[in-house]
């Protein structure tokens, strides 16, 4: 089985190299999808991802690991019957609901310049309402190492410093796996990597 890795906003495939190595040691081949929000719109990136998913699916069963915005791009790319869905998807810190920090970040010109349509979409409720849900099995991994309390923008809700645990849920029935990690580097934590491998392995056993 091949595992496609999709990085998060303002990151690169390098951010998932450690996880990719762990997946390879588990016996799977890996491929990376790369994008830059500064140069492409969300829709253009999703279309390219759809094309790569189609290519990967033609080689046999596959899985996807997507970090942060990568999970939303994946949902958009798979929102058509023309693409064979993955055997399993692991979403790392995905903002499946509008993150409360997005409207605040959007007020900062550097964030606007770097993230463009991708960043703007994160501020829009209708964007999330229209985003397709995954049609295949998935696992959500949420970080809970962020600050809480009256000085935190998250109040008492567990979070990873960027996304609250409630914001990672795609449906009310989702039960994210929780780890005491921060958003940006959660994919490097050994326990998170082991959870990713376990989730994908469970899908392999069902094939």
Give an account of the 3D structure:
The structure is a single chain. The chain has 207 residues and is α/β, with parallel strands linked by helices. The protein has a single domain, classed as 3-Layer(aba) Sandwich (Rossmann fold), CATH 3.40.50.1820. It contains 7 helices and 6 strands, in the order E-H-E-H-E-H-E-H-H-H-E-E-H. The chain has helices at 17-25, 42-57, 69-77, 102-106, 109-121, 125-130, 190-205, and strands spanning 2-6, 29-33, 62-67, 88-92, 138-143, 177-179. Helix 2 (42-57) packs across helix 3 (69-77). It is globular, with a radius of gyration of 16 Å.
Summarize the structure.
With 207 residues, the protein is an alpha/beta fold. Helix content is 36%, strand content 14%. It is globular, with a radius of gyration of 16 Å.
What is the CATH fold-level name? Answer: Rossmann fold
Average pLDDT taken over every residue = 96
Radius of gyration: 16 Å
Pick out the low-confidence regions: none
Count of distinct strands: 6
Number of helices: 7
> Domains counted in the coordinates: how many?
1
The CATH homologous superfamily is named Alpha/Beta hydrolase fold, catalytic domain
User: Strand portion, in percent?
Assistant: 5-15%
- Give the strand line-up of the largest sheet: 2-1-3-4-5-6
CATH class: Alpha Beta
Largest sheet: 6 strands, parallel
Distance between the amino and carboxyl termini: 11 Å
Globally, the shape reads globular
Order of H and E elements: EHEHEHEHHHEEH
At CATH level 2, the architecture is 3-Layer(aba) Sandwich
Percent in helix: 25-40%
Helix/sheet category: alpha/beta
